[in-house]
Amino acid sequence: MEPLVLDSKTRLLVLTGAGVSAESGVPTFRGMDGLWENHPVEAVASPQGFEANPSLVWRFYSQRRAGAADVKPNPGHDALVRWEEHLGDRFLLATQNVDGLHTKAGSRRVVDMHGNLFRTKCADCPREPFADTTVHPSGTVPRCDGCGGRLRPDIVWFGEMLDPGDLARIGEFITRKDGTRLVFLAAGTSGAVWPAAGIVDEVRSARGDTWLVNYESAANTERFHHFVQGLSGQVLPTLAKLV
Ligand SMILES: NC(=O)c1ccc[n+]([C@@H]2O[C@H](COP(=O)([O-])OP(=O)(O)OC[C@H]3O[C@@H](n4cnc5c(N)ncnc54)[C@H](O)[C@@H]3O)[C@@H](O)[C@H]2O)c1
Ligand SMILES: [Zn+2]
């Protein structure tokens, strides 16, 4: 197999999805059956669900925070840390995962496209989101120090917009004109969730080389120049040639 060459003329954009955390024991989206305690996922992951029952939402995210607090990064996360150390500012990691495992592994140039389980924001005022590991297992809804309103997890829920600043950071990396060659690698993502699924086409428009590492074929596999089928924790550690 042809290696993914990461040399001084290369800039690399990586997109990760739930599959990259699967080998750490974090369930993927499909594995959850879209249900939690017999509630449809929209009840716990949409603004309407939060309006209807914020207490249920906090019980759900308290359980996810508690579950994710104990999990450890796997060799797939570690490989991305080594690539970043090698490439520096010629590396950017966009993740759809909210579990914080890339940061725990040591990745620094990370865009949390879908938010972060360990950050909280106010549903009622524009204060900055803040780091938060507290859990509210009995469903107490925490209150904002600033306005007294309801706090909520800093997660991009169904029907919500992604942060425009995050999308701009990814877009600027793709279109950067510094004489380097653009390479894009997506790993552990079903290619069904937008706008992440469209990044491959943005990269192709910028004449970048595109790689997919996934356990199964994804919804957009044919858009990639290279498809390496396998588990990210096994494939990523040996895929790249750092020169
Ligand atoms: N870890 C997390 O933070 C987490 C977990 C579940 C869901 N989510 C959210 O749910 C949505 C799901 O979209 P998605 O595309 O990220 O995930 P997805 O669950 O829709 O798809 C995961 C993909 O990864 C593949 N896969 C599973 N195990 C793998 C492995 N070990 N190595 C390589 N590939 C593997 C599967 O074949 C599948 O195609 C996202 O919006 C995400 O934010 C996040
Ligand atoms: Zn507030």
Q: Can you put this structure into words, describing what you see?
A:
With 243 residues, the chain is an alpha/beta fold. The chain has two domains: 147 residues, TPP-binding domain (Rossmann fold), CATH 3.40.50.1220; 78 residues, 2-Layer Sandwich (SIR2/SIRT2 'Small Domain'). Helix content is 31%, strand content 23%. It has a six-stranded parallel beta sheet, with helices on both faces. The longest helix has 16 residues. The model has no long low-confidence stretch (mean pLDDT 95). The site of zinc ion has 8 residues, from loops.
Distance between the termini: 17 Å
CATH topology of the largest domain: Rossmann fold
The strand line-up of the biggest sheet is 6-5-2-10-11-12
Task: Enumerate the spans where pLDDT stays under 50 for 5 or more consecutive residues.
Answer: none
- What is the average per-residue confidence, as pLDDT, rounded to a whole number? 95
Q: Which distinct ligands sit in these coordinates? A: nicotinamide-adenine-dinucleotide, zinc ion
Number of strands: 13
Class computed from helices, strands and strand pairing: alpha/beta
**Helix segment count?**
9
Secondary-structure element string: EEHEEHHHHEHEEEEHEHEEHE
Portion in helices: 25-40%
How much is the radius of gyration in Å? 18 Å
The CATH homologous superfamily name of the largest domain equals: TPP-binding domain
Please identify, by name, the CATH architecture of the largest domain: 3-Layer(aba) Sandwich
Which CATH class of the largest domain?
A: Alpha Beta
